[in-house]
Amino acid sequence: MDNKSIAGILYETADLLEIDGADSFRIRSYRNAAEAIEAHPQQISDLIAEPKQVLAISGIGKGMLENLKEMMSQGKLSLHAELLTKYRPSMLQLLKVQGLGPKTISSIWSAYQVSDLEGVEQLAREGKIRILPRLGEKHEQKLLKAIEDYRRIAGRFLLDVAEKQAEKIAEHLRDYPGVEKATPAGSLRRGRETVGDLDILVTGPACCDDAERQKLIDHIIKLPGLMEIIARGENKVSFRMRGGMQVDVRFLSPDSFGSAMQYFTGSKAHNVALRQRALKMGYTLSEYSLSRLDDQQVVASKSEQDIYEALNLDYIPPEMRENLGEIDAAEKHTLPALITQQDIRGDVHMHTVETDGRNTIEEMAEAARERGYQYMAITDHSKNLAFANGLDDAGQSSTSGRFARQTTQSMAFASSQASKLTFLPMARLIFPTPCSNRWTWSSPACTHTSISLPKK
User: Fold this and answer.
1) What is the pLDDT confidence band of residue 408, given thresholds at 50, 70 and 90?
2) Domain 157-252 - what CATH class?
């Protein structure tokens, strides 16, 4: 049994223990062990005969060592098998649905022995969820909406999740000798809110030799978190990561890297429009090059900038490639400039250690100065968010003096104190008007509670 298989069993055991209502410390111990084993460079099967070496791995204690010994000798973990028998594998999918926590799933199972998404949806439509303890009609309606949302975005991942995964994979690729570039493409590069499959383009000497490419693929397969190889070819390897994300890694020669980057970045609508423009100009555009139609002579291929220039267009940033008028704007030299990190002049949403932040007012002000900000605003939580240490009227008053002193010392930029002035469900303010008079302004509206109220 290899490390990936061991980690998979431990991850599933942690999820099933959560459904079973086990102690949070015990659940975390299984997840920590899974993460450590998944990332460990040596196979546990090679170390298990030397327990001290296994115990030296962070996250592995004596109890977990016994679990590993059992998996090595039996090919399974008895606790994992018992929980699967008790709760069914389909319950793991239910945990991914908003509003279906471990306790709710356990309650549904106890009452109806239903453990799959379709069964839970049917129960909700029949009005059988609302009669369970701590639930009700509103929860039932929310659950139906959550199942609908889950199905709609199933197989897609939020941008920040995809970005972290892509950087992890790209870093693993760059560690290999002969890899010069490893760059994400597709909807991630265009900055879309959600990402389906992850495309990563790789180039360098290691991609130009058959034997070296196969060695590079062997290196990729060692990536922590890789669960399944879907396809392995000469110029591409596809695999699935833990969590379900499919990744396609393509190996390219430096001569065609630019045209491949343009092609695989998309969007499809943008590429279709660009190819039509190329045809009208006597060219053909593909993932390999921009070439002349008459003699197939390559016009541009090494960089995206060369391709757009050859088509008499300004370079179009990936974030604009949606066929929403960007090609006409690039032809007329009227493309708008994208906002960059350097354009940010200040921050108007900042929390401190007075509520749920990690830094003091003074540290926040110093960080703002270092970034060259022109203004900042401290916007700690108000008293209705007790779980976030929200400040009551007295707390707001006590921090005002410290804030005023810091403002006096920080004449290089404008600063102000605000609060998340909360509107209660009946549109009542959380602070009385006299209290709010001391603030320079109230921070931008942020929804924290009562998020399921009707529009009217």
Assistant:
1) very low
2) alpha beta
